Amino acid sequence: MRNLSTPRQQRGVVLAVSLILLLLLTILAITASTSSTLQERMAANAQDENIAFQASESALTTVNSQLNTYIEPAADSLITNTSYTNKSVRTRLEVESHPTESSLNVDPGTPDFILYDITSTTTLDPSVVTIDENNAYARHRQGYRLRIIK
């Protein structure tokens, strides 16, 4: 009977198989790391988009509450939101008013309407000087009709 454990008869197959398995595990680890990094970036972008959306909606709500109390909002204003500690959230509000003119002779007590076009543009980039559609994270437009009784 021959003894197979002598060094002359071993060919190093175990070494080759273990190196191939080590290579496969390394490739698997690199792929998992890349995938988790991509998922982390996607989650951060989704969070930024959500913050910008909320800031734009908050600015629109501010203008609506001003209009409901018959306060004329500024035509172009900048709002800096400091409630987010790690983000620089700035929103530009543009308000255009279009008074409607009726062709009828208006008596006192007749309602008159003013139409407002409100645009809220939000950026999270602190280096931006002028906020416009090119550097916006969120942009919302809303119409508003105000009834005034004269």
The helix content, as a percent range, equals 25-40%
Molecular shape:
rod-shaped
Q: How big is the Rg?
A: 32 Å
Report on the biggest sheet: 4 strands, antiparallel
Distance between the termini: 117 Å
**Count of extended strands:** 4
How much strand content do the residues show?
25-35%
CATH class category name: Alpha Beta
With helices defined by DSSP (H or I, 4 residues minimum), what is the helix count? 1
Low-confidence stretches: none
Provide the succession of SSEs: HEEEE
CATH superfamily: GSPII I/J protein-like
Query: How confident is the prediction overall: mean pLDDT?
Result: 82
CATH architecture: 2-Layer Sandwich
- The assigned structural class equals alpha+beta
What number of structural domains do the residues give?
A: 1
Looking at the structure, the CATH topology is Pantoate--beta-alanine Ligase, Chain: A,domain 2
Spatial strand order of the main sheet: 1-2-3-4
Fold and architecture overview:
This protein is an alpha+beta fold and 150 residues long. The chain has a single domain (12-149), classed as 2-Layer Sandwich (Pantoate--beta-alanine Ligase, Chain: A,domain 2), CATH 3.30.1300.30. It contains one helix and four strands. It has one helix at 13-68; strands at residues 76-81, 89-99, 111-123, 138-149. It is rod-shaped, with a radius of gyration of 32 Å. The model has no long low-confidence stretch (mean pLDDT 82).
What is the compact description of this entry?
By secondary structure, the chain is an alpha+beta fold.
Topology (SSEs and partners):
Elements: H1 13-68, E1 76-81, E2 89-99, E3 111-123, E4 138-149
Antiparallel strand pairs: 1-2, 2-3, 3-4
